[in-house]
Amino acid sequence: MKNQKSISIFVLISGLFIEIFLIVFTHFNRQNGNIPLFMFLYLETFLIMLVTFFFIRKLSKNKTGKPKKIPWLIRTLAKILSFNEEDADKLRTPLLIISWGIIFRLTLFPAAYATSPDVNRYLWEGKILYHGYNPFTISPADTQLARFRNKVYENINFKNMQTIYPPLAQLTFLSAYLIKEESTQGLKILYLAFDLMILFLLLKLLYLKKSDLNNIILYAWMPLILLEFYVNAHIDIAGIFFMLLFIFLMEKDRPIWASLPFALAILVKMYPVILFPLVLKRMDRKTFYRFFFNFILIVMVFYTPFIYKDYSVFTSLITYLKKWEFNSSVYYLLKHNFFSPENSRLICAGLFIITVGLISYFYKDFTKAAYGIFIALIIFSTTLYPWYLGWIAALNPLYNFYSVTSLLFTINFSNFTPLGTVWKEYLFVLLLQYIPFFTLLLIDLLIMWKKKKIVEKTQ
Fold it and tell me: Distance between alpha carbon 345 and the CA centroid of its chain, in Å?
């Protein structure tokens, strides 16, 4: 088909431009983090991704000519993905996009972290866990660990704090240490494995929800995913995979099986626990009891080795929840104009709980409800580092809210804070992020409401 050829050529050229930029970045970012270069790379990659996305969307609506014979590889992948035979041709562009996405990830393997040193703690905790120490009960600054101190230790933030990362995250750190010791490449190898499964699940979900498969570009090429997980090497990618698997199994009406990835997602990072209220509506009492029993059992199995003779595993996490704040919207508005920090936290927590309750009571589409809850988390969160958006970025290809896509772009400007010699947040950065986000969110909700009305009239 004529338009398919044009799409393929455009994707190849766009991917080549991004790849050149990534190669240059990796070359100049092997040792010390180059934040200005990181921010520029984020900016140009996002713009190229967005132009390519709209170009594909426009040409896909006006396909001309007879479809070509479908290659054997695409037909095989279509069968693996459980696609109908007549839909196999729809995989041509998504597979090309994914191929470039994999190349981008591999290119960034040698890159050093740029805007966040968190990976040093991952490497440290993997090492001390390997040597038999419990990162939940012993901080990096503890004198018992003095013999392990090196450059990785020197670059750890908050050395007096025990870990906030749950047991499965710890086992991921340990696995990375076994693969490559104190090298970020051990983590990135594991991340790539998780990412390939995420891309597979996203294709399945896009097909299941009858969304455009080409929307996969909004994850495969998303600079937040590329740079936060393959440059800064944040652990969230493992949790995102398990969360998507949980959502997919819930969509396939397999709630008992879904309890396993749900527990595992929370055992990487706690964020998916906010989706728990959605489960209540989807199950009868007996099924829910089985789901909850499985969930608790899995969590206990993973936590037990770490809480043996010591129950302080949540100390640092509680400190984080009480004290941390960064790049917030509603919380900062309340804190700086109306209430104390403590009361502002309580109000945001209350508003978030109410919002989750309303979504959980009224929703009809499980995945869309999960997407809505993560949007609520963005609105009422006290802390929003760029990589926190990785969770909603994995769901964004399914719904492509303008507001979420906007924030995935403007979150890059929050990197002005670590760029300075003093940790400082800037009002213009907050306005640049949240004015477009809230404005576009109203438009997104209006569009969604209109679509719902149209569907109701046609029924």
Answer: 24
Residue among 27, 179, 18, 225 nearest 110 (CA): 27
What distance in Å separates the CA atoms of residue 322 and residue 98, rounded to the nearest whole number?
Answer: 40
Q: Residue ranges of the domains in the chain?
A: 314-459
Non-local (6+) Cβ contacts of 315 within 8 A are 162
Give every CB contact of residue 408 below 8 A, 6+ residues apart in sequence: 46, 222, 224, 389, 393, 396
Predicted confidence (pLDDT) per residue in 247-295, tens digit: 999 999 999 999 999 999 999 999 999 999 999 888 888 999 999 999 9
Q: What share of the chain is helix, strand, coil (3-state, %, to 5)?
A: 75, 0, 25
Show the tokens assigned to 309.
């003779």
List CB contacts of 107: < 8 A, sequence separation 6 or more.
19, 22, 23, 26
Q: What type of residue is 354?
A: I
92-107 helix and 2-28 helix, angle to the nearest 10 degrees: 10
Each residue's pLDDT tens digit, 305-362: 888 655 556 666 676 667 788 999 999 999 988 888 899 999 999 999 999 999 999 9
pLDDT at 81: 85
CA 390 to chain CA mean position, Å: 2
Look at residue 29 and give its three-state secondary structure: coil
Joined tokens for residue 207: 């097909």
Between the two ends of the chain, the Cα-to-Cα distance in Å is 35
Low-confidence ranges of the chain (pLDDT < 70): 1-2, 32, 62-68, 308-317, 319-321, 455-456, 458-459
Task: Tell me if 42 sits within 8 A of 223, measured CB to CB.
Answer: yes
For residue 325, which amino acid is it? E
Element (H, E) at 102: helix 92-107
Q: What is the pTM of this model?
A: 0.94
